[in-house]
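Feature request disguised as a bug report, sorry. It would help if multi-protein outputs had a clear separator. Right now it looks like this:
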Amino acid sequence: DIGVLVDKVRRTPDLDDHRNLLHPDQRVYLYRGTMDNSYQNGSVASVEGLYAQLMKDSNSQILFRNDIPEGHHVPGRAAGRVDVREECLKHTLMRGEIQPPGVVNYSHVYSINQRRFIHEEDRNAGFGYKTWIYAPLACQNFAADDLSKANKKAAPEGCQVFIWFNSCGGGSGTYDTIEFEAYAETNNLVVIIPTVVPNNCWKRKSARGCGGSVMRACWDVYGHLGADYALRSGPHMRLFKRILTHILEKST
């Protein structure tokens, strides 16, 4: 019942203020491939319905792409097909204006040791070692811990932050392109990629302290780490808040 969920959002104090979604600049992009067997037909449409009741003008604020014959992944660029990454950025961050993708430059990849932000109560949450940062030259005051490697000039006001949560099974110790970097180069975007990995309870064949998809290196979207998984107090959310705060403080 979407109405029940809307009421819960409005009554839950440990969420960001839902009234922020009323602002016309707040945008939502949703995608589900027509061949997705993980999330059944109608599931993402329900999410659209939830947001529609929380936004002022859902027709302009929400874009739901559900007509691409793909499975459970974000498809890249292909001839004759909508580029989901471009469409997402164009709708949410670029407000309808986006430059064509540029050339990915791997010297613009930085990382921070995200495990130093882990508190004792986070030990079984499956966090990886690194948060990756892709920062084009114009935005490189968003650098890594070693700021000497970056251009220290102030970034232009147009630089924006885009956060990508790695897909299940991701989060290895090496950097893998996510295909947003080419757009970052030409649109002054800083891409931040925190990581989770298969954690110790998976290796021990035990679900104590974790469970299900979290053991397979997925972000917790089902409550395996606790009932507060979707709140600011949830293990994954609270850790990433510490990381993001650190990165933004380094950029000023």
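(second protein starts here, but nothing in the output says so)
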Amino acid sequence: IYKRLGGGEEPLEKMVFGVYDLMRVDPELGPFFERFAKTPETLTRLKVRTVDYLNGEWGGRPYEGPNLFESHASMLIDDWLYDGMMHMYHKMLKLLHVDKVLSAEIIDSLEKMRPPIVDPGGILLKEMEKKLAKASADRRERMRLHMLNKAQEAKDAKDAKATFRGVKMNGFQNRALNELFVENDDPEFQVNDRETYFSSCGDYFLYRSASTNTWGAAKTKRFKQVKEGLSNGVAHSPEGFEIWQTGSVSVMLSHAKKAWREWDAEATKWITRQGAGVESRGKVRRRPAAHDREERAVQTEPWRGVTQATQTWDVAS
């Protein structure tokens, strides 16, 4: 169509500009331009955008821009107004002496553009509203994740500065107990009104047992039962033992390894493990995950000769 109409933008501009000029001065169609082409500048922009689109549609310079529905959705064009435009195209094609065959092809092409412009039934509008709603939801989700990331970064930075009490256990047959346990003083994780200590991998925790006057070790998955006094754990200190003993190094050493009892599943009984218990105590600091995905930990302020490294924690300086 582009070539047969003249092979340049001038013939196309004459037709399009002429149609809009006829519509603008029409007593019935003209008032509608107050909605979307009120000033000479906006009317000119509408003409140019229409030429750009028809250029690409009819074989000229490729069109780059929104589709027909998106570019006309805010104009609220109905079939009556579109019929009025089509009448002006018929009139303009005659004024330009375009032959009947080409005129018929142009009219047929313009009619095929009616559905996305008029959008009968509002089907395209509903689809666009769904897309906009999804885009809005996606944007809110991105903002939510961004805020969560910022909060996590702030928490990591805070944790990187905060120090916690750590207890290094050793000497047990169950190797999962020979770990660094770090204090959790959150009230929700207290047992018998005392803090608890969780292993770096989170599988086990240490707690104060009021019924036995000992410190015990239990599986984290049984935390609720332990807190309710329905589980005895898997290991216990001697009676009267205090896990965070204060005083001189010699006093702390004397309270360190006091032969804790460990439950032997194969023997189905409690076994006293000589030398099993607290190996060292000290301060530790959490390493932010963003700093190093392969987290590690080091017992700090240790007793003599203890430099055991585990997971999740760094030296507290």
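Even a blank line would do. Unrelated, but nice: The CA atoms of residues 287 and 295 lie 7 Å apart.
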